[in-house]
Amino acid sequence: MACVLTDGGKRDLTLSVIDSANHIDREDLAQVVALLVRHEHELSEPLRRKLAAPLSKLMSTELSQRTFDQHRRQLVKAMGLAPSSERRRPSGRPLSSVKAKGGGKGSQPNAAGDEACDAEQAQQRTAKSRGQQGLERLEQSREETQGMKDDERSDEPKSVGEAQTPPKQLSAEKLEAIKAQNEAFIERANLGAGADPALQSSDEALMNADVVCVDEDYVLVPAKLPKGVQENEVVRTIVESRARYDFAVTVTRLELDVEKKIVVTKDGQRRVVSGDVQEYGPKGFSVTWQALATLAVMVGQFAMPLNRLGTMLSTATKKFTATSLARMAHYVAERLAPIYFVLMEQLADSDILAGDDTSCRVLEVSSYRVKARQAPPDEPQQPAPWRSYATIAEANKSFQQYERQKSELLARRAAGDRDAKKTAIEPIPLKVLVGRELDFESPRKNGDGPKQSLNTTVITGRADPDDPSSMVVFYRSHLGSLGNLLEALLTRRKPDKRKLTVQADLSTTNLVTNPELTSRFDIELAGCSAHARRPFAQYEDYDPKPVGFVLALFQMLAIHEDTLDRLGRNRENTLAVRGVDSRRMWEDLKDACTKLAKRWTTATPLGNAARYIIKHYERLTAYLRDPRLEATNNLRERLLRTEKLIEKSSMFRRSIEGRVVLDVLRTLLQTAVAAGAPPHQYLVDVLKASPQDIEAHPENYTPAAWLKRQLAEDQAPAA
């Protein structure tokens, strides 16, 4: 293969490198080093500086293998041949380099009587300090880029451990101008009548601590007098409070003595009346409702692998296996399925839908793909395991077949057939039930068969646009993308809900392209500033000065949003700050990216990143015009972070059915977190409810509806 190295835009150095399967030993690398040393005079000064250190070390013949490998890797990185995962830096957080002076979100008030006043003043000081720091860094970065030619690339930073050039000091006049600009920004951020709950930014926790049971105990630790000291010599006794925390995983065995009474009726018939154990747990399981709720939280939110969980919970008298725990989780998901569907209906009518997806791996799918590729060409292709529920039409056919088999079995039983047992009735798989509402397999846009990539998609939206607690968090794993799931939701959207805003990363797979849907609804697309920023943060070393200026602009945008949250976001101050301060930053961003696009081609990460902002400028700045929109799509990305943990460790990755179980559990759990409902308590109450009632009225059992009912009961006067 050939690797092309670019030397400061002046010449291309094409180096042929053998395939990675054939390892380059020390003798081979010595020839490469000698070749570079002989032609060192032909290289530019910046390139010579980068190669000097590793080349001088590799010319030594007395290096140990370990030291040799270290210098070899240094040379490879200097030549730009390192894997992209090694070259890139983590994108980090925009506000990580900004210090919160004068108190932060968690600052403590000085006096109990002035708590509200002190907290507000602390937030004002922090906002003002961050704004000042951000503007100063921005101006310093701007000065560093002034005078640079469009085709000139800044020198790369020095190696790790070497001193970096300190930023230039700003003049007194510029500092005064920055101070005035910052004060005007803070004045705009203080407009309005305080925080508006309808504009509250989403900050949802992935792992809620509600599952932990907290007990408090008090122990008096007596002071033992030393020898020779009498009790009557003690003049005063004081008690100092200290805390110790104890935690343990506890499995409680609940012994139920079920009373049974034999009753003789008037006609002489005997019947047995037993105590009802439904209050303690479901029929057919040896666990309580609380245990099922705990399992759902541990698996759905904490990504606990079932085999380890089973080992941890097993005792000398009771063994929990991964299979038995999977069966319990499946039961919980079946009970919650009607609520999953009604949340989908509520989500479809949201004014704003935001989503993201990530690839996932299910062994049932990947093993089928492998067998299909390895099969002889003349052998007929085996049908896919998901053929019976690939589309809504196929799932409905499968559902009717299950229902027909059930009817036939019940008819035989009614006719006296003893072999027709109820236990022989095969339950309808959850994947078929969900498949009746949502396609599992989506077609390619070019018509070349179905999509091959298995993804987990998450979409959020508010059932009530003015109530943040009405947010629905919906998960779906399928052979498709965010765009496919959006189109499925829009087919259920009410016709009068014409206006819709969709926020995503603007990939073509995330767009709604169905002509019928685009004609029925007015869809506005909004981008994600974090997605636009990420490649600049990862590849800043490629062109530090202009890219540093771009990152400083993104940092100011983050400061604007953080300040609005600190001082109380409302419609007036949000539109004012975004319309003046943030709009100014985006205009500078567009100009900076236009210059970067002239220096970096589409074959480079920075070139693509700059052109992405230029191409999608209107969509990336859509949030400036709508105070309801967030600047980033970070919440959806956070909601998918546990996917990789689950993929590596959970039994659910073995089958599509298990993946559907996980989708249902996570949807209910994260929607409960968004509503402010304790997930564990919510699950326990819903599982105890009548399955028939949940089936008939699932809208009464959504997390928001449950919490509203709980609050009403708490506020009702005692009888």
Q: What characteristic shape results from the CA principal axes?
A: globular
Distance between the termini: 82 Å
Count the DSSP helices.
Answer: 25
Strand order of the largest sheet: 7-6-5-8-9
Q: How many strands, which pairing sense, and closed or not: the largest β-sheet? A: 5 strands, mixed
Rounded mean pLDDT is: 84
Radius of gyration: 32 Å
Low-confidence stretches are 1-22, 103-113, 154-163
Number of strands: 9
- The class by helix and strand makeup works out as alpha/beta
Strand content: 5-15%
- The percent of residues in helical segments reads 40-55%
Tell me about this structure.
With 719 residues, the protein is an alpha/beta fold. Among the domains are: 2-87, no CATH class; 112-156 and 170-190 and 529-632, no CATH class. It is built from 25 helices and nine strands. The strands form three sheets. The chain has a five-stranded mixed sheet with strand order 7-6-5-8-9. Strands 1-2 form a two-stranded antiparallel sheet. Strands 3-4 form a two-stranded antiparallel sheet. Helix 14 links the parallel strand 8 (499-503) and strand 9. Helix 5 packs antiparallel against helix 16 (544-567), helix 7 (289-300) crosses helix 9 and helix 15 packs antiparallel against helix 16 (544-567). The chain is globular, with a radius of gyration of 32 Å. The chain starts with a strand and ends with a helix. Residues 1-22, 103-113 and 154-163 have low confidence and may be disordered.
